[in-house]
Write a structure and sequence with these properties.
2 domains, 9-stranded mixed β-sheet, 23% strand, alpha+beta, single chain, 6-stranded antiparallel β-sheet, 15 helices
């Protein structure tokens, strides 16, 4: 069953920095498109310098992004910019943000040390495929710093939200941290440090009975932690069961939390030259009802109306705006007879297997290697590119629903990569978990 423990985090000393806003960041995999430079400019102590450092032509085995990350960590600890907590704690983490409708909601989480378990044990389940490159990068950073900086975003079953209620009673006071992060500026982040042994014991007891937890975000980080654990156990076979490297820092969110919000991730295919538009559409018309639309607004409105339908996808290219509705539902069964129906009904599965692989003849290995594909939360970049290039194709998707995620994980299925985008992201920099060989929990 799930084991969660409080831990003595490394945290920013707010008396030593100008403002907490200037030292936190998006998770490492969101630090792109110039955002790295923006974080660097905010503060010489911004956590991005550790989690997504800059590479230089002069880098060597002894001076590189990973060695510099460790240097920053140790220097900031020595200077008191970072400090270690005196006692173990859970870190209650609320994110309050507006929805497009204008409603403001709060997603509640708590950050703790989650005992690692293999996916075959059934305690924690993945829901997406992963890429090899990010796991190598994260493992190198972990080995260099012996510290976890970012969180696994973990969903746990709790229909009555009992754990949130326990913490709500414990935090009837101003937050220890209040922040707004550079990239998602509309989100208010609040953190409370909870050290009360009685509260901790009640939370642990509730968590102890749970299994089938789902990794919402951080698949690469979790698999990296398993790899790091295996390496450390091999090097230190006599290590205690509660050794720090047997755990991974995680932000725990109830699957029933009313603030749980999932956004779609759109796909931009670029520099595509295998077939012409007419050839693609001739194949598409055999399987989909194709409706040409006037503009972006009409396309997105029709997609919104189809959130509960199977196989509805938007296509935007230099020739115009199209709504594609799968009208031969059994084709996915023919192509993937060994897959669960829950997987075959996913819009992202239909997109990857049917449209990209079978109609456009794109090798799935190229998708896995991120060749000629961009994943977009905001599709504006894609809309702009297809206007200028007739070799680019933008696919607009509806968001995957939480019930689809749980159906797939219950069936043992991994969804295609980037099937979900939980909003907002769990910000990096509020707490850090040391995992040196002599660290215990």
């Amino acid at each position: 069953m799930a084991t969660i423990k409080p831990f003595r985090a490394i945290r920013y000393n707010q008396h030593k920095i100008d403002h907490i806003n200037n030292v936190i960041s998006q998770p490492y995999d969101r630090v792109r498109y110039g955002l790295q430079d923006e974080y660097y400019a905010l503060s010489e102590y911004n956590v991005t310098r550790i989690i997504k450092g800059k590479k230089f032509d002069s880098d060597s085995d002894t001076d590189n992004i990973y060695t510099r990350a460790n240097d920053f960590l140790n220097k900031w600890l020595q200077e008191g910019i970072l400090k270690r907590e005196d006692q173990p704690a859970y870190y209650v983490y609320h994110q309050t943000f507006p929805l497009p409708s204008g409603e403001t909601i709060t997603r509640k989480a708590f950050i703790g040390a989650f005992e690692l378990s293999g996916f075959d044990e059934g305690i924690v389940l993945p829901h997406e495929k992963t890429h090899a490159g990010p796991k190598i990068d994260r493992l190198n950073l972990t080995k260099a710093t012996e510290t976890y900086f970012g969180n696994i975003f973990m969903l746990y079953p709790d229909q009555e939200n009992k754990i949130d209620a326990i913490f709500d009673q414990a935090i009837q006071r101003p937050a220890d941290i209040e922040a707004k992060e550079l990239h998602e500026k509309d989100v208010l982040h609040q953190v409370w440090v909870v050290t009360d042994p009685e509260v901790i014991a009640r939370v642990n007891a509730e968590m102890a009975e749970k299994n089938n937890l789902i990794i919402a975000d951080g698949h690469h980080r979790y698999e990296t932690a398993l790899n790091y654990q295996a390496e450390m156990k091999k090097i230190h076979p006599e290590s205690a069961p509660n050794a720090g490297f047997n755990y991974r820092m995680a932000a725990m969110v109830s699957m029933s939390n009313p603030g749980l919000t999932i956004l779609p991730t759109h796909r931009l295919i670029f520099d595509y030259q295998d077939q012409t538009f007419d050839e693609i559409m001739a194949k598409t018309n055999e399987l989909f009802r194709v409706e040409k639309l006037e503009n972006r607004q009409v396309l997105e409105s029709k997609l919104k109306d189809a959130t509960s339908q199977v196989g509805v996808t938007g296509l935007v290219c230099s020739q115009g705006y199209y709504l594609l509705t799968l009208n031969k539902l059994d084709i996915m069964t023919d192509l993937e007879p060994d897959r669960a129906q829950s997987w075959r009904d996913l819009d992202v599965s239909i997109l990857h297997k049917l449209l990209l692989e079978n109609i456009m003849n794109i090798d799935p290995k190229k998708i896995d290697n991120l060749e000629n594909i961009k994943y977009l939360r905001e599709p504006d970049l894609g809309y702009d590119e297809v206007k200028e290039k007739d070799t680019s194709f933008l696919f607009i998707l509806n968001a995957t629903r939480i019930d689809q995620i749980t159906d797939c994980t219950d069936a043992g299925e991994k969804m295609p990569q980037k099937s979900t985008d939980f909003y907002p992201k769990i910000v990096t920099g509020f707490a850090m978990l040391p995992v040196q060989k002599d660290e215990t929990l």
